[in-house]
Amino acid sequence: MQPLFSRLLRRSPLLRHHHLLNPNPNPNLSHLHLLRSISSSSVPDSDIRKYAGYFVLLLGCGAATYYSFPFPADAKHKRAQIFKYAPLPDDLHTVSNWSGTHEVATRVFLQPESISDLEKVVKEANEKKQRIRPVGSGLSPNGIGLSRLGMVNLALMDKVLEVNKEAKTVRVQAGIRVSQLVDALKEHGLTLQNFASIREQQIGGIVQVGAHGTGAKLPPIDEQVISMKIVTPAKGTIEVSKEKNPELFYLARCGLGALGVVAEVTLQCVERHELMEHTFVSNADEIKKNHKKWLGENKHIKYLWIPYTDTVVVVKCNPFSKWKSPKLTSKYTKDEAIQHVRNLYQESLAKYRVEPAADEPNINELSFTELRDKLIALDPLNKDHVMQVNKAEAEYWKKSEGYRVGWSDEILGFDCGGQQWVSETCFPTGSLAKPNMKDLEYIEELMKLIEKEDVPAPAPIEQRWTARSKSPMSIASSPHEDDIFSWVGIIMYLPTMDVRQRKDITEEFFHYRHLTQSTLWDHYSAFEHWAKIEVPKDKEELSELQDRLRKRFPVDAFNKARKELDPNRILSNAKLDKLFPLLESPQ
User: Fold this and answer.
1) Mean pLDDT of residues grouped by 10 in the chain (587 residues)?
2) DSSP assignment of 63-124, as one string?
3) Backbone φ, ψ for residue 206 (5° rounding)
4) Model pTM?
5) Which among 282, 304, 317 has a CA at the least distance from the CA of 487?
6) Among 99, 254, 258, 523, which is least packed, fewest CB within 10 Å?
7) How far is CA 567 from CA 249, 336, 540, in A?
């Protein structure tokens, strides 16, 4: 093996120059002879001193390493082994939200099977001051239910306890999923009044974060709650309703899991019914002309705005009448509606010189949202590329116009696409009798902001509406019965598992979110959905957020209830502690 210094010199321009002058160098030259050969040429003394210094430095580092980390006596007889990570402990549970944007590992993950088990779990945790944050299905985009210090999950408490067909009510354990409950209600001819986009949330979770569907006459889902049974650390199991402790009932109905573990919920249901969905493409001018009328006359309505286009997808859903049913067939088949998106994907693969993976599914078997994810993944932060994908989406919706009929729980679902960052804000927009059009002004400013700042904003920007909620911690809370609220969600997809690419998308999304926050939120009194609010890392920004929340919500009353029901804050987590700081720390 060549000496280190000799190898170092062979990499230098000086040594290459020396070989050019001496085409038959003697490989057995000593270092001294080599240095003399170099010094006899036109090489400056400063260069000789520099490389001699390198040699001394390397020699010193080698000596220091040897004496600091001496080899054992038998080292030369041992075989080298590949480094291995220590295995994770068997009792370590990793819990991630659906989009993989928030994840924690904990040794405390409890799943009681009955209310008596839950009562024991909460009592023991309170005595030990062990945190057990209530976590539902873990779907919240901001991971509001996650805590590395410990969690309690009610997935094993998922029973329907009682159905009152005459009163149209159902009492359930809080761990039951929406999809399970809807299936169980079918035989009784009942269903839930409204639905969010997906069905996998636990009932306890969907209520506690104030989730919502759409329809200006329909309130958020917490308004469907008639009574609750909550297990509290300090006062045991409490049953609350409009009649029993109404103040706590309304506060705990959207209590963010901080006032007690919701064990049982009684919900007001409605008769099972079919809806007719009408999907069509419009534009901003047309919507301005019809918006007030559409809000009032449609049971469910939402707009899907597509950035960098003049396309707005309108989706209306109303009770189905066999006597007033239009032609249900669409102009295009599903294959015809999506074919141009397939073509764009094939062209983009060639453009970006990407070879499909060996296990790549057949392109003809992919849904539109799956194709969109694959398209965006090719260049997710290139505005021009995203614009092209958005235009393809606009064309897809134009070819998908038409009607369909189905049960309400089937029709009101929405394929949100793959993993994504999302920020959804809610703000007042007048009353049902007098909409103030602030909802459309908000969108108009948002679209201008996107284009001005060259944001690679994918579609859709989803806009929905609800009536008010009487729960004071609801984002849509209001004392006025006729008030309506608009909900607007911005997104950026995470269509790849590449760590660097996900990091870049995350940074761009938070820049996008910050632009909307600084430009729109205060002007429109907009607040983020509790399941989507992100806590700022900057102390000044966090302080400003805390002040904003205090002006909008009864934070003092909420914190007072937390102190009374959970004095050791075992049901809290870092996110809640930062959003709603208590003056006194737990003992």
Assistant:
1) 36 34 39 38 58 63 52 42 47 87 93 97 97 92 94 96 97 96 96 86 94 95 97 98 97 97 98 96 97 96 98 96 70 93 95 88 93 96 98 97 93 86 97 96 98 98 98 98 97 94 96 98 98 94 97 98 97 97 63
2) HHHHHHSPPPTTGGGSPP----PPPPPTT-EEEE-TTSS-EEEES-EE--SSHHHHHHHHHH
3) -65, -30
4) 0.83
5) 304
6) 523
7) 19, 61, 27
